[in-house]
Amino acid sequence: MRILIVEDEVRLAQTLADLLKRQGYTADTCCDGVEGLDNAASGIYDLILLDAMLPGKDGFTLLRELRGGGHTVPVLMLTARSDVTDRVHGLDSGADYYLTKPFEPQELLACIRLLLRRGNAAEARLDDAITCGDLRLESGTFLLTCQDRSVRLSRREYDLMELLMRNQTQIVTKEQLLLKVWGYDSDAEDNNVEVYISFLRRKLTHLHSAVHIKTIRLVGYCLEVAP
Ligand code: CA
Predict the structure, then answer these.
(1) Which of 20, 140, 144, 225 is spaced 20 to 30 Å from 213 by Cα?
(2) Cα 54 to ligand 1 centroid, rounded to whole Å
(3) How far is the centre of ligand 1, averaged over its atoms, from the C-alpha of 9 (Å)?
(4) Looking at per-residue confidence, does 188 or 149 come out higher?
(5) Residue 183, by phi and psi: left (phi above 0), alpha (psi -120 to 50) or beta?
(6) What is the distance in A from the centroid of ligand 1 to the CA of 10?
(7) Which residue intervals of 42-104 are DSSP H helices?
(8) What is the pLDDT of residues 170-220, one digit of tens each?
(9) Stated pTM of the model
(10) Residue 16 Cα, ligand 1 centroid: separation in angstroms?
(11) How far is the CA of 180 from the centre of ligand 1 (A)?
(12) What is the rounded distance in angstroms from the CA atom of residue 2 to the CA atom of residue 24?
């Protein structure tokens, strides 16, 4: 589970990141609203902790733009202000939950667990069958199926294929694939992505699928469905 912390008070951001890491989450921080929106919209996070008052772009604006772009990632807003109109403003902007500073770490962790459970439940329903063209990918079994043929994917192959299939025929950048599948702390490189893409291509050939993984030079990959 990867959590993004958008908070300009550096010490608080670090404290939150340490707290989350001790609970087994992966946590990244960023300290202004412009970079925050870019990262929040990257599609690699399972949850965003968002401060209301930020330099560059305030949390409410960031959130409205994020939701306006169709991103449904759960957002927990944090603010020093306990004013009820702020709380309403936050929820109206698309926050899933609202915590007023100072809060107890236990309260924050409980909210995070709640939002992640909700997100997972929504995703699990989608996960039952991700399809693209003649392909079907099952989350429980890692089986990739095309008509009467199927192959079992490894964990990394599954993560890559899932990201490609969720984006259908839109381009997924190598950076997105590296971050989502290997994570920030990993020293994996483009080369690793290429190796796993070649494994997947071999499996697609074996399945006789009409779906191909197309390389977009210097950018990334997308799925292409042959007519
Ligand atoms: Ca702030």
Answers:
(1) 140
(2) 5
(3) 6
(4) 149
(5) left
(6) 9
(7) 59-68, 84-92
(8) 999 998 888 888 876 667 777 888 999 999 999 999 999 999 999 999 899
(9) 0.58
(10) 14
(11) 27
(12) 10
